[in-house]
Automatic annotation (TrEMBL):
Keyword flag Transmembrane: yes
UniProt-recorded name of the protein: Integrase catalytic domain-containing protein
Alphabetized UniProt keyword annotations: Membrane, Transmembrane, Transmembrane helix
Gene Ontology MF term list: nucleic acid binding
Highest taxon of the lineage: Bacteria
TM ranges: 16-37
Record-linked InterPro entries: RNaseH_sf (IPR036397)
Length: 88
């Protein structure tokens, strides 16, 4: 990683956490957050919830020929009315 001064800093990661919010009925992933730390915190959980509520933006892939299929992606990509949707 690059530090604020622009120098490259190498470090060993102890754990990688993948926090995911999944819709129970459809089994669709609504949002996720990747944590590169020993433990995740409440702020990481909040970030996961934010990512589930915000509309998902499609990523640009650097591998030639790799792309989203016609039925791939997050629900908020396919159905714009699901952006910022909440439940009771």
């Amino acid at each position: 990683m690059h530090d604020p001064l622009g120098f490259v800093q190498e470090f060993e990661m102890e754990r990688v956490w993948l926090l995911v919010i999944i819709d129970v009925c459809t089994r669709a992933v609504l949002g996720y957050h990747l944590v590169l730390a020993r433990e995740y915190s409440r702020y990481d959980v909040i970030k996961t919830i934010e990512n589930a509520l915000e509309p998902h933006r499609a990523r640009r892939f650097s591998i030639p020929g790799l792309a989203y299929g016609p039925h791939d992606g997050f629900p908020s990509q396919r159905l714009p009315e699901l952006a910022y949707a909440t439940w009771e």
